[in-house]
């Protein structure tokens, strides 16, 4: 049984290491959007290249995050976490030194691989290291400090872009890794699960899933060309998706076992997740561009302007989760998307020479309140919709679904809104397309609200509850504890995640 106490020197070092490592990936998901216009100018990149700069990272992260957790269980969580940090830092260095946009996109894809190794490992290390009496508090501190890091991200990104330059958005990860790795090696105990040394990894499933996303994303981004290559990519992407489903059904140890979707509520809540996180992914990609290209904000101004959303989530997400437990998930998962839709419609006021107080802030406040209302109940409903032993897997699938939804939205929204390759260089063209995109995002959120209202039901009273009460990530719901098997499958113990039941005994993040 792990016996590190939170108040001990080693406990503080373990917590510091996991917060620092996870913050690298969390910051990267929020600061890059702010830097996109300057990257485009310096590298002479068109809009499609900027889309790939965002999507290359999300593609490999979404496709490999379940597999990354399984690798940690089999080969050692500290070892895989450290490899992930080093990999992420090396890819970040390559991003910062990229001589052209092609190298930058390739390096971003490599960054996502590193993120898939270190992101599951941070919470897994906490759960495998701390004494059960301290584990819930450690998770709370990890979650809270991570939220503070997310809040600082856009501001820090804007400061770096306007100051030393956009390359420092990536280069900053190198000194963070140089601090994180020796601390992890010295103070974090190694942990693993002997039961994961049997069976095989579902590498084929991970490859097919990631290939399907990559091919469909390419087809959407390049669809305006209407070439044979685009058509072939679209068909191949669909075929890879079908093959992924077939392989997962046929394998004895699949990464994403189809039987978990036998729960109607689990299936429905993932459809809701696809709707809301597609809208969020599209909004945060386009909003940073809108503020700079159309409204004339600096990168620092655009990053600071978006802070209210993260601050609201930092301050209110735990209270929203408690409210959802009292009244059930149906109302929050209906009202939350509707509030977000209203916020995106208010964003139509953000145009040339927009006043922050009159035009920008109201949209962000309403959107932030909507996100606060829905994110915690969404996670709780995912965990409650399956058996306790599958709660960790359910959370991992939901997290990957959200990232995939954002990936597709960043690829599809510019196409739907009629943005040409040089749209971000013209304020008038981009402003018109942004308005269309916000209407599409709002409509997608309304669909999510209707799904929630008509299908979501109150879970059983003894269901699994989320352990990460504070969450500020805007690209995906939080990962929750579970025990990852050798193929990336997750099981868990009854009562895991419940402080009153002994607190996360044996639980690990996917």
From TrEMBL:
Residues 483-510 are annotated as: Disordered. It is a multi-pass membrane protein. The keyword Transmembrane applies. Its main location: membrane. This is MFS transporter. SUPFAM superfamilies: MFS general substrate transporter (SSF103473). Residues 14-460 form the Major facilitator superfamily (MFS) profile domain. It is found in: Cell membrane. Residues 492-502 have a biased composition (Low complexity). It comes from Streptomyces gottesmaniae. Pfam families: MFS_1.
């Amino acid at each position: 049984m792990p016996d590190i106490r939170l108040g001990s020197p080693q406990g503080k070092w373990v917590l510091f290491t996991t917060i620092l490592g996870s913050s690298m990936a969390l910051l990267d998901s929020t600061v890059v959007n702010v830097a996109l216009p300057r990257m485009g100018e310096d590298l002479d990149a068109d809009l499609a290249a900027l889309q790939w700069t965002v999507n290359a990272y999300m593609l490999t992260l979404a496709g490999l995050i379940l597999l990354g957790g399984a690798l940690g269980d089999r080969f050692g969580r500290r070892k895989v976490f450290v490899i992930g940090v080093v990999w992420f830092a090396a890819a970040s260095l390559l991003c910062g030194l990229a001589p052209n946009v092609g190298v930058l996109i390739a390096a971003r894809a490599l960054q996502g691989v590193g993120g898939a190794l270190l992101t599951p490992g941070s919470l897994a290390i906490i759960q495998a290291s701390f004494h059960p009496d301290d584990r819930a508090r450690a998770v709370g501190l990890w979650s809270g400090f991570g939220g503070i890091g997310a809040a600082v991200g856009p501001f820090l990104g804007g400061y770096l872009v306007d100051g030393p330059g956009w390359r420092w958005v990536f280069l900053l990860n190198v000194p963070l890794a140089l601090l994180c790795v020796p601390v992890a090696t010295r103070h974090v105990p190694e942990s693993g699960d002997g039961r994961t040394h049997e069976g095989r990894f579902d590498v084929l499933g991970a490859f097919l899933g990631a290939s399907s996303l990559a091919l469909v994303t390419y087809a959407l981004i390049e669809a305006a060309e209407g070439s044979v290559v685009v058509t072939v990519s679209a068909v191949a992407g669909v075929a890879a998706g079908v093959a992924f489903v077939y392989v997962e059904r046929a394998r004895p140890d699949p990464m994403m076992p189809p039987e978990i979707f036998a729960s109607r509520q689990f299936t429905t809540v993932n459809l809701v997740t696809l709707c809301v996180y597609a809208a969020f992914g599209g909004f945060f990609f386009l909003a940073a561009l809108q503020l700079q290209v159309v409204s004339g904000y600096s990168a620092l101004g655009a990053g600071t302007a978006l802070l209210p959303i993260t601050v609201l989530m930092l301050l209110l997400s735990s209270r929203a989760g408690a409210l959802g437990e009292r009244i059930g998930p149906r109302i929050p998962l209906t009202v939350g998307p509707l509030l977000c839709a209203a916020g995106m419609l208010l964003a139509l006021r953000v145009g040339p020479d927009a006043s922050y107080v009159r035009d920008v802030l109201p949209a962000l406040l309403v959107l932030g309140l909507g996100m606060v209302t829905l994110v915690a109940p969404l996670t709780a409903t995912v965990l409650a919709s399956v058996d306790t032993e599958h709660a960790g897997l359910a959370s991992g699938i939901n997290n990957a679904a959200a990232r995939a939804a954002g990936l597709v939205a960043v690829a599809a929204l510019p196409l739907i809104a009629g943005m040409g390759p040089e749209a971000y260089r013209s304020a008038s063209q981009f402003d018109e397309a942004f308005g269309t995109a916000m209407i599409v995002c709002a409509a997608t959120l309304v669909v999510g609200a209707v799904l929630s209202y008509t299908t979501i039901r109150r879970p059983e009273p003894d269901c699994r509850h989320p352990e990460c009460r504070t969450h500020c990530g805007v690209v995906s719901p939080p990962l929750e504890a579970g025990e990852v098997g050798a193929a990336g499958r997750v099981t868990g113990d009854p009562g895991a995640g419940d402080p009153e039941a002994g607190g996360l005994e044996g639980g690990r993040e996917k």
